[in-house]
């Protein structure tokens, strides 16, 4: 039940964007494993739910320096949903050999801005 709640929750763009990893490198293997395991649960007829998970998997892999897995994950997300903007943008950045650190900085700034705007958030 928890897996399906996470998978469905990540269909919301704001939730998905908040799930983009801005954590430290030590957390990346766990994040990568989580997103990969959840993406594999999106089997037919629920394959259409996989693009956010594949994008998160690709982002964690890219941050670990694994551009091959990241490219495959982003491509798979786009194969399922060609209009998936975030996957397309990140795949484009890999192809231009962009450093994910510059993108991470933008994500961290956005996460901080979001947190500051939501003083009522529970900071567990």
Write the layout of secondary structure elements.
Blueprint: H1 2-9, H2 13-19, H3 28-40, H4 51-63, H5 67-80, H6 85-95, H7 100-117
Helix pairs in contact: 3-4, 4-5, 4-6, 5-6
Spell out the key features of this protein:
Serine Threonine Protein Phosphatase 5, Tetratricopeptide repeat, mainly alpha, 124 residues, globular
Plain-language structure description:
It is a single chain. The chain is mainly α and 124 residues long. The protein has one domain: Alpha Horseshoe (Serine Threonine Protein Phosphatase 5, Tetratricopeptide repeat). Helices cover 68% and strands 0% of the residues. The protein is built from seven helices and no strands. Helix 4 packs antiparallel against helix 5 and helix 5 runs antiparallel to helix 6. The relative contact order is 0.12. The mean pLDDT is 88.
How much is the average pLDDT?
A: 88
Helices, by number, come to 7
Strand composition percent: under 5%
Q: What name does the CATH topology carry? A: Serine Threonine Protein Phosphatase 5, Tetratricopeptide repeat
For the sheet with most strands, the description reads:
none
Report helical residue fraction: 55-70%
Low-confidence stretches: none
Identify the overall geometry.
globular
CATH architecture: Alpha Horseshoe
Overall radius of gyration = 14 Å
Structural domain tally? 1
The rounded distance between the terminal residues' Cα atoms is: 22 Å
Helix-strand string: HHHHHHH
β-strand number: 0
Structural class, by secondary structure, is mainly alpha
CATH classification class: Mainly Alpha
Organism: Streptomyces macrolidinus
Pfam families: DUF4192
Protein name: DUF4192 domain-containing protein
